[in-house]
Specification:
The chain is mainly alpha-helical. The chain has two domains: 8-94, no CATH class; 100-130, no CATH class. Helices cover 47% and strands 9% of the residues. Pfam families: RT_RNaseH.
């Protein structure tokens, strides 16, 4: 998985340019795996299928197309609905946030310390005579 935060200038790119830039950056990042292989690149941006066949290019696109020509690949469109793996990876920060909510029952466990037959006496001693900066 590869991800990159766009700077202010790149955030102003058109959707087409952002998608094109994403392909270039991914190929740069994974080039050591892809440079000598034929592969299929799936994109949910259908217009990108025609990158290599365009005749009029601005300077940025020309530079990117020149870089892409060092790879042997075809681009296939894959609608966003079918591309669930990429969708899940792009939302992984939401999953991590949800997983980091709270542990249920933790407060209840803390209340059981004092009544535990093996640990109760030590717990009471720590509560009454804390040593240094450590206490329960």
């Amino acid at each position: 998985f590869f991800s990159e935060k766009l700077d202010d200038a790149k955030r102003k790119y058109s959707t087409y340019d952002k998608e094109f830039y994403a392909i270039v950056r991914c190929l740069e990042h994974w080039s050591h795996y892809l440079i000598a292989r034929e592969f299929i690149l799936h994109s949910d941006h259908e217009v990108l299928k025609y990158i290599q066949g365009q005749h009029k290019l601005n300077s940025r696109h020309a530079k990117w197309v020149e870089y892409l020509q060092s790879f042997h690949f075809i681009i296939k469109h894959k609608s966003g609905k079918l591309n669930t793996g990429a969708d899940a990876l792009s939302r992984r920060h939401l999953l991590l946030f949800q997983l980091d909510s709270c542990v249920l029952g933790f407060e209840h466990l803390k209340s059981l310390y004092s009544t535990d037959e093996d640990f109760g006496e030590l717990h009471a001693d720590c509560q009454q005579h804390p040593k240094g900066d450590f206490f329960l």
